[in-house]
Amino acid sequence: MVACRHSAPAPEAEPIPPGPPVAVRGIVMDVRTNVVLRDAGVELLIPGRRAQTAAVTATDARGEFVLDAVPPGKYRLRINHVGFNEFQMSVDVIRPEQGPLTIHLRALDVQCPSSRYHTPDCPL
Fold this sequence. Notes:
Layout (H helix, E strand, L loop, with lengths): L21 E9 L10 E5 L7 E6 L5 E7 L2 E8 L6 E7 L7 E5 L19
Parallel strand pairs: 1-7
Antiparallel strand pairs: 1-4, 2-3, 2-5, 5-6
């Protein structure tokens, strides 16, 4: 005779309550220097739907971004900037009074090519 064990079902994540559209705000900075990053690409992606974007914008001169009128729900935030690693995180858009996000990007590790010409990023 084989004994069977029944395990309790995994708890389901709480659904996000419906509500009015929300503005998702944030600032993007260099993790090493804390300098704000202008013109970083900001995308709010709908999880589970390949390449479906809910909202797109770019950071302004102060490194800030605003995605207006986002319906409440679970999203994936993706940030890109030239010379930096891509950043992604899950975001639960729930209520209008949510504070701004602070995103720190890490600079790419620059490999200097072997050349007799050098730039400020690749000194001799």
